[in-house]
Amino acid sequence: MTRWNLNAILSWVDSHIIDYPTAMNLNYNWSFGSTAGFCLLIQILSGAFLAMHYASETHYAFSSVEHIMRDVKSGWLIRYMHANGASFFFMLVYAHIFRGLYYGSYMEPRQHLWWSGTLIYVLMMATAFIGYVLPWGQMSFWGATVITSFFSIIPVIGKEVVMWIWGGFTVGNPTLNRFYSLHYLLPFLITGMVFVHLGLLHKDGSNNPLGIKTRVANINFYPYIYVKDLVAFFVLVFSLSVFIFYFPNALGEPDNYLEADPYSTPAHIVPEWYFLPFYAILRVIPNKVGGILAMGGAIVMLFLYPLLNTSMLRSGNFRPVYAVVFWLFVADFCLLGWAGTTPVDDYFRFIGITVSVGYFSFFIFGGLFVGWLEKILMWHTIKRSGSNMRCSTSLNHLTTPPSYKVGVVDYLTPEISHK
User: Which residues are listed for heme b b562 binding in this entry (predicted)?
Assistant: First the structure.
């Protein structure tokens, strides 16, 4: 009888989950990805049950959501699980992105891994926006009206594209039907991209807190890393349960409990909290085209960051200047989220402009200038120490191993093999 791990199909599980070699120094920061995958599973399952009772028709959509809450057995639980699960999904993905930025997971040879993850993030944003429209509340309707009108900036065909998305001259029943279909489809595209992401991850191996190759100091994923992820799962389930049972509407928008009214514009159109940083960037530029391009550019910068990087060091643990810049960026991102909730006046607009400039400055300063500064300091240190090391300026790494046992240059990006 053939062992299960030699089976053509089941061997994938063995090689990618059980016997997958993993660095033994991974900490709980490496559990964000697996817990985000668990959140994706929760979203797909809860969404499938919600779809059984939802009516994608403008006259019944809002009532069908209330029907789920009041009449369907445990419908309130399924809906709150789906709504709060989306927020936790974004929390974990943001933490996953920040961890990658700090530990250099975007650097050679993992650029394609970074780009696939960023694409997953963009698909998540599209899915979440479309899902926000489905309850057909006030924020749903007016959010759909505002966001879809972004396509009107396309030269020549912009207005036609917007009308094609709407299925008419305004947001209405055809729009809701299309969004419902896409909201059901996109999670499966995200799932497919997750498998691509995993394939690219296992192609080059996981990064680690030191940012070096650990071919010798590797352990099997199961049971060692699996236990860490299991602890993270329990923390996630507990935290999510607290919000579902005690604060189910804390992360939502109260105005969306009012049925959509095309004749009554809300005083302040606010997206979900996980879009607020980009919404703040959109608002600080009075020009419509400029604001949309700035918001899109904020996302594009995530794709460009691996190309902007000039550092030879990977982990932020050995980059003190970059570590300061990184934590300033985290604070700036949080301030951007807060700025997205504030009224539109001169005082808050000035704050929004300041933190928006800070957001883009991180990718330029943290990617380009900090790397150059590190090179200058490193070459100066090497020259003063009289080391026998030489550097290839074209390859951007040392060509001669260091003459001492341990030093900062042992943690260079290309992971020199010592002979």
Answer: 82, 183
